[in-house]
Amino acid sequence: MNLLLEGILNFSGLAITAVALVLTHITIASVTIFLHRQQSHHSLTLHPIASHFFRFWIWLTTGTVTKEWVAIHRKHHAKCETAEDPHSPQVLGLKKLMLEGYLLYRAEAAKPETLDKYGQGTPDDWLERNLYSRFPMVGISLMLMLDVLGFGVFGLLVFAVQLLWIPFWAAGVINGIGHYFGYRNFETPDASRNIAPWGLLIGGEELHNNHHAYPSSAKLSNKWWELDIGWVYIRSLKLLGLAKIKKIAPKVRSETGKHLIDVDTVRALARHRFHIIKVYGHRVIRPVIRQECQRANSYYQALFRRVRKFMTREDIQPDVKAQAAIQQALARSHTLATVYHFKQQLKDLWQNSRQHQAQRLVRMQQWCVDAEQTGIAVLQEFAQYLRGYTEVSMVRI
């Protein structure tokens, strides 16, 4: 009877809770390192021992098929915040993502066209074909038996926690809250957010905006005060010879005294365009709006504050009413109209993918000359900032 109630391990309730948290964290680490960073984005390579451990653990604890997960995630990046995005809270609503995230995942996994188009390059060995993909429920059933055997009746609770852990944190929190609440280091065109600066609970996936800015980076933290626990694990695997890091997002800075924009500068600006747009909003548009508010009446103060988010953020599109407000604000302030026009020119320079590097260089140089000739101090300072823009470290390590 005691064996049935307590299991062969005979752990206390506190010990069982601790074990459950450790087991679920291993699952989180497996998802972020193997499924996300290695399989979906190829930001690192794993030794076969590490790779198979993660694949086995994910099959055992979640029943997830690698090709399905990878395909859905890649489609999310390709179709982000559109009707084709498998899990956008901006389209479907946050409540639906939080409550029905797993159902949305299963519905997308059932589409052969999604798997065929976005699931290329995932494991296709004998084990994958004959066990992991063919019998995903066997892993979960085995986990149930092990939980009950080890913890007795409390094993059912441990099993429930393990089963719900990934659907809640990944399908609900990351896919939902990660595109709804938080802060943004980069003005990506999607609504991605960093939920928290310390990625401990969800393996570093809390730094979701950073990931959308640099999808192929094995490291999700970007600022010095951010922590990506998944990156700590990857570096540990590297030290053990179980992982090789292919790419991380490079650090950038602006060198004072550099007056000539060259090809390397243009390449750095293009690679870090989401960072540049973020900085432009903070250093140019916001100061101009503050200045205009100081000398405007209450009506125009309210107008300038209302349009500020549309002029500095890339994740929201103004409706007809907002567009009218923007035009009214631009008509009221020549300075604001000028800096907003220069922002659009900067974006157009990067969005024209057919443009040769030499043409882009000439246009970037001319942009800086024109910006400095406006006589607008913040725009002149930003032009000098762009002239000195450079990468500190190499992308490949």
Characteristics of this structure?
397 residues; mainly alpha; 2 domains; two-stranded parallel ribbon
Sketch the topology as an H/E string, one letter per element: HHEHHHHHHHHEHEHEEHHHHHHHE
Helical residues, percent: 55-70%
| SS summary, helix count | 19
Strand order of the largest sheet: 1-4
Query: How many separate domains?
Result: 2
Give the overall shape: elongated
Largest sheet: 2 strands, antiparallel
Give the strand content: under 5%
The protein's oligomeric status is single chain
How are the SSEs placed, and which strands pair?
Blueprint: H1 2-6, H2 13-40, E1 44-46, H3 48-61, H4 66-78, H5 89-92, H6 94-109, H7 112-118, H8 126-132, H9 136-151, H10 154-174, E2 198-199, H11 208-213, E3 227-228, H12 229-239, E4 243-245, E5 252-254, H13 263-271, H14 273-294, H15 298-312, H16 320-332, H17 334-351, H18 357-373, H19 377-387, E6 389-391
Parallel strand pairs: 2-3
Antiparallel strand pairs: 1-4, 5-6
Helix pairs in contact: 2-3, 2-4, 2-10, 3-9, 4-7, 6-10, 9-10, 14-15, 14-17, 15-16, 16-17, 17-18, 18-19
